[in-house]
Write a structure and sequence with these properties.
Triosephosphate_isomerase; cytoplasm; single chain; Triosephosphate isomerase; EC 5.3.1.1; 10 helices; 8-stranded parallel β-barrel; alpha/beta; binds phosphoenolpyruvate; TIM Barrel; about 250 residues; Aldolase_TIM
């Protein structure tokens, strides 16, 4: 199973900025990416084509959307379908990033609809889950992981290929705060995610990648990806710069 080193650019970068960063990143990892790694960039819709033009043909490099709408087409002003994302070169999409859950009010059910619809329409899906600080303090980490996983994977096709489903554990209190989760917290949460996956998909759970996200940087990435059940990282702030994200991808 290859480790997935994923960037999430959120609502940053014009087309030209995105292209320049992607080129800088790709040049820095060219010929150096270990055989057991893949890289992925999730970019704003408007920058997907320019980032895709840089990633196209590069080994183990994937283009990802940050969101999708679970319908083929229709009267959904402002939304984007999986077919449109594939048309622009995406092979992946995120679903349920904490900023979408907490700022846009996406429910567990909505996130599950996105994961299922994306998979059914040929995208690989990265389901983001994670607890808030209040939920952690209330001892609800496992309850939240359980709920978000259960709802997030509820209606996916029974014959899904395990490499097309990725879970990103991102404690909300560690996203964009500089406060990375401790090693014990990461190992405990990822172990629990693996256990829940085994309950839901006994045959495939070991091949589903579990990424950690939350203030990953060049300085802490090597330790994090060496932990049990950590199959890659999802990186926000530190992925916006080609040099810093290349150090993470090669860590
Ligand atoms: C993210 O956006 O998914 C994320 C983990 O952000 P950051 O790395 O900035 O904490």
């Amino acid at each position: 199973m290859k480790k997935l080193m994923a960037a999430n650019w959120k609502m940053y970068k014009t087309r030209a900025e995105a292209k320049a960063t992607a080129e800088d990143f790709i040049n820095r990892i060219d010929g150096k990416l270990p055989a057991d790694r893949e890289v992925l960039i999730a970019a704003p819709y408007t920058a997907l084509e320019s980032v895709g033009s840089v990633l196209e043909g590069k080994p183990d490099s994937y283009l990802c959307a940050e969101n999708l709408y679970p319908a083929e087409e229709g009267a959904f002003t402002g939304e984007i379908s999986p077919a449109m994302l594939k048309d622009v070169g995406c092979s992946y999409s995120l679903a349920g990033h904490s900023e979408r859950r907490h700022i846009m009010g996406e429910t567990d059910q909505m996130v599950g609809d996105k994961v299922a619809f994306g998979l059914k329409n040929g995208l690989s899906m990265i389901l983001c889950i994670g607890e808030t600080i209040e939920q952690r303090k209330a001892g609800e980490v496992q309850k939240i992981i359980d709920q978000q996983l259960e709802a997030g994977l509820k209606n996916i096709p029974a014959d899904f290929a395990p490499e097309t489903v990725v879970v990103a554990y991102e404690p909300v209190w560690a996203i964009g705060t500089g406060e990375v989760a401790g090693e014990e917290e990461i190992v405990e949460a990822h172990g629990f995610v693996r256990k829940m996956l085994k309950n839901i998909f006994p045959e495939k759970a070991n091949e589903i990648r579990i990424l950690y996200g939350g203030s990953v940087k060049p300085a802490n990435c090597a330790q994090i990806i060496a932990l049990d059940n950590v199959d890659g990282v999802l990186v926000g702030g530190a992925s916006l710069d080609g040099e810093s994200f290349s150090q993470i991808a090669l860590a």
